[in-house]
Amino acid sequence: MNEMSIQQVARLTGTTSRTLRHYDQIGLLRPSRTGSNGYRRYGSAELVRLQRILLLRELGLGLTQIAEILESEEDDESRALRTHLTWLNTERDRIGRQIAAVEQTVARIERGEDPMDESMFDGFDHTQYKEEVTERWGSDAYQQGDAWWRGLSDDDRAGFQRETRELGDAWARAAEAGTDPTSPEARELAERHVAWLRGIPGTPAQDPARVAAYVRGLGDMYVADPRFGRNYGGAEGAGFVRDALYAWADRSA
To answer: Roughly how many angstroms between the first and final C-alpha of the chain, as a whole number?
Structure first.
């Protein structure tokens, strides 16, 4: 029987051995067998299950929800994967429309034309995470954040996006340098991160009684969800951010 080691699976999927061990511990993804030396081995059935887990994570679902879905669909993996395939095709269409919109904008600029056009934001939709935000933090949080974003000027939106990128780059550089998550440098980055969160209306970061738990939850999400991990240099960078935010939350508490 063909099997892979935990390190091979981690490299293949872009996740981490730590994440796979966590999935094993909570019963979400058991290895096909564990050797007498403690090494985990994964077969084709486990890889199919992992593919489904990663796809559901892309949809923003939590691990508890994913476990429930996998259990309910255990007898019909093909049907479940076809549901995922429908979502992926929808995403491919959306990204294709974004590419076409940007290409059109570039072409207009290069021709010396006014790039403003109703189609220039085709495929761009900041409300795509509405259900996820509502589920995690409530409808009020989404409505406040949505109203805030819509009320920003173009310059303010660009400034916020620039600040977000600069913060992510700073985290990634610190992680790459092997910075201790409990060091003063990491503490300063965590303070900067929390200040950035507090600038977004509706987030629990503005509530002193909830901010520590909120920050810990975000740290876990950055590690578990590759969409967020990419902002911090990948899985290892996300792990560093989580550990630093945990350290900040411990001090805050």
So the answer is: 50
Q: What is the CATH number of the domain that holds 56?
A: 1.10.1660.10
The answer, yes or no, to whether residue 165 has pLDDT greater than 90, is no
Place of tokens 């879905």: 69
Name residue 9's amino acid: V
Q: Is 198 found in the same domain as 154?
A: yes
Q: Is the pTM of this model over 0.70?
A: no
Which helix or strand (DSSP H or E) is residue 42 part of? strand 40-42
Cβ atoms of 128 and 60 within 8 Å: the answer is: no
Has residue 117 got a pLDDT over 70?
A: no
Q: How confident is the model over 228-237, as a mean pLDDT?
A: 79
- Cα–Cα distance, 34 to 146 (Å, whole number): 48
How far is Cα 154 from Cα 42, in angstroms, rounded to an integer? 49
Contact 67, 88 (CB under 8 A): no
Q: Residue 42 is part of which domain span?
A: 4-72
Number of domains in the chain: 3
Token pair of 36 as six digits: 């007498």
* pLDDT tens track for 167-199: 988 999 999 899 999 999 999 999 999 999 888
Mean pLDDT of the chain: 79
Contact between 224 and 63 (Cβ < 8 Å):
yes
Tokens of 199: 């600038």
pLDDT > 90: percent of the chain = 23
Instruction: Give the torsion sign (CA, 115, 92, 128, 212).
Output: negative
CA 245, distance to chain mean position in Å, is 16
Tokens standing for residue 165: 């990128």
